[in-house]
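User: Let's play a game. I give you a shape written as C-alpha cells, and you guess the letters that built it. Ready? Here's round one.
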C-alpha cells in the first residue's frame, strides 16, 4: 500500500519523527497548509543546535543558548501537533508507529529524521567508560565531569590521582574533537588560570587522538596541518596515526601499548544512525544509514522518507552528502516540496505514478567550518580556503545565523563577546545529578 486512496477525505496525515534540522524544517514548510495534518514527535521537548554542543561542554555557553522549545518554534503552525514521545517501533505496511508512551500513531506519510547516536565501531561496551557528545545531557555531563575533576584535583594530595584528574582524552580528530580540544585549551590556559590555588591549571593535559594520519580529514592537508600546529601551540597533544584498542574505567589503551589514564575520556570518533532505520524493511549500511531513492523516499515505499544523519546518498558530483546541519535542513525542505506537489497532483485526480514525477534531491554544498580556539578557525567552501582570524569571524556569524530564534542569536552573540573580552566564560556552575555525593549550590 504505497499510495493513499485518491478518494480519501481530509488532510494527509504526516508523521515526522525527530525535531532536528530536517524534521523541523519540513514541519515549518508545511505549517498552516490545510492539506496536511502534521504530527512531529521527539523524545526531547527542544530543538538542539548540535554544532555548538561543544561550547556547552566546555562551559562557554549555557544550554538555553543553543536550544529552544519545539512548541515555541511551531506555536503559530496551527496544523502541527508537537508531542514529546519516543518511537519504539514502526510498521511500514500498516502505516503505524508505536510510542513508548503506549500511543499508536497512524500516518499517510512518514518522515524519519530521528538523527544519529554515538557509534563505537562495534565496541559498544566502551560507552560505559566514555563521554559522548550528541545531546544536551551529554554536553552537560562532559562539563560537569571536567570541572568536577578540577575541583577534586584541588582537594587531593596524591600526585598520581591529581594527574589522572587533570588529563582529558578526546578520541576522534574530526570537527567535534578539534573544537572540543581547542575550547578546553582556551578554558584551562586562559579562563581558569587564576581561579585555583593548589593546582596549576596549565598542567592539565588535553590529548586529541586520531587513527588517520591527519586530523580534519575532510579538509585540505595544509588546513589540517595548520589546525594541528595551532592546537599544539595552545598546549593540546595531538596524536595522529594513533588507534585505541581498548577502553576501560579511567584507561585508554593504544595500539602501540601505551596506556593513558584519565577520569575524562571523551568519544568523538563516530556516529551510528538511529536503530529505527532497521524497522523499515530496507537495507542499511554498517552505520545503520539508508540509501533512499533520489527523492529521499524509500525503495518500494513512496510514502516513507528519510532525512538527515540517517541518509547515505551521493551529491551530483558523486561525493557523499555530509551529515551536517545545512544538508539536513535542505533534505527537510525537499521532502516538504515533494509532499506539496503530491498533494497538488492528488487534487487534480492525477491517475499516473506521482512518485515518478518527483524531483531529485539536490544538495547545495555550503562547505565546512571548524573553530580551533580563540581567534582561529578553518573554512573550506567551494574553491575558497580561509584560515585564521577571518575564518573564525566567518564561523562565528554563520553559526549565529543558523540559531533558531532571535533571543538565542542575541544571547549567544553577547555571551561570546563578553567571554572574548574577559577570557571568563560564565557557564561554569556544576550541577550534580540527583544522588551524587557532593552537592553544589
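Assistant: Ready! My guess for every position:
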Amino acid at each position: 500500500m504505497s499510495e493513499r486512496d485518491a478518494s480519501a477525505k481530509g488532510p494527509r496525515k504526516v508523521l515526522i519523527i525527530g525535531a532536528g534540522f530536517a524534521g523541523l524544517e519540513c514541519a515549518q514548510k508545511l505549517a498552516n497548509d490545510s492539506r496536511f495534518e502534521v504530527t512531529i514527535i521527539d523524545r526531547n521537548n527542544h530543538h538542539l543546535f548540535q554544532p555548538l554542543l561543544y561550547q556547552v561542554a566546555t562551559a562557554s555557553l549555557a544550554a538555553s543558548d543553543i536550544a529552544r522549545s519545539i512548541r515555541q518554534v511551531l506555536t503559530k503552525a496551527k496544523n502541527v501537533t508537537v508531542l514529546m514521545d519516543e518511537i519504539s517501533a514502526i510498521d511500514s505496511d500498516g502505516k503505524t508507529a508505536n510510542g513508548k508512551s503506549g500511543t499508536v500513531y497512524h500516518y499517510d506519510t512518514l518522515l524519519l529524521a530521528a538523527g544519529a547516536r554515538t557509534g563505537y565501531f562495534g565496541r559498544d561496551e566502551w560507552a560505559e567508560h566514555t563521554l559522548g557528545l550528541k545531546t544536551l545531557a551529554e554536553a552537560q555531563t562532559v562539563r560537569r565531569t571536567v570541572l568536577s575533576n578540577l575541583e577534586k584535583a584541588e582537594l587531593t594530595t596524591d600526585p598520581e590521582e591529581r594527574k589522572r584528574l587533570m588529563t582529558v582524552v578526546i578520541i576522534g580528530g574530526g570537527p567535534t574533537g578539534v573544537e572540543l580540544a581547542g575550547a578546553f585549551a582556551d578554558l584551562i590556559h586562559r579562563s581558569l588560570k587564576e581561579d585555583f590555588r593548589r593546582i596549576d591549571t596549565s598542567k592539565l593535559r588535553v590529548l586529541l587522538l586520531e587513527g588517520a594520519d591527519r586530523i580534519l580529514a575532510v579538509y585540505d592537508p595544509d588546513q589540517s596541518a595548520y589546525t594541528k600546529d595551532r592546537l599544539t601551540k595552545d598546549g593540546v597533544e595531538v596524536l595522529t596515526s594513533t588507534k585505541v584498542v581498548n577502553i576501560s574505567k579511567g584507561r585508554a589503551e593504544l595500539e602501540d601499548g601505551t596506556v593513558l589514564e584519565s577520569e575524562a575520556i571523551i568519544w568523538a570518533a563516530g556516529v551510528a544512525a538511529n536503530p529505527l532505520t532497521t524497522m523499515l524493511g530496507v537495507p542499511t549500511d554498517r552505520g545503520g544509514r539508508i540509501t533512499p531513492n533520489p527523492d529521499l523516499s524509500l525503495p518500494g515505499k513512496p510514502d516513507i522518507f528519510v532525512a538527515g544523519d540517517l541518509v547515505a546518498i551521493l551529491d551530483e558530483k558523486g561525493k557523499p552528502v555530509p551529515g551536517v546541519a545545512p544538508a539536513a535542513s535542505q533534505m527537510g525542505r525537499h521532502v516538504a516540496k515533494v509532499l506539496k506537489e503530491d498533494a497538488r497532483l492528488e487534487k487534480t485526480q492525477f491517475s499516473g505514478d506521482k512518485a515518478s514525477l518527483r524531483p531529485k534531491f539536490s544538495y547545495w554544498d555550503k562547505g565546512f567550518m571548524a573553530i580551533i580556539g580563540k581567534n582561529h578557525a578553518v573554512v573550506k567552501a567551494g574553491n575558497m580556503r580561509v584560515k585564521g582570524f577571518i575564518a573564525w569571524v566567518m564561523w562565528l556569524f554563520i553559526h549565529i545565523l543558523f540559531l533558531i530564534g532571535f533571543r538565542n542569536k542575541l544571547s549567544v552573540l553577547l555571551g561570546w563577546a563578553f567571554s572574548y573580552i574577559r577570557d571568563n566564560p560564565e557557564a561554569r556552575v556544576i550541577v550534580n545529578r540527583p544522588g551524587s555525593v557532593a552537592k553544589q549550590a
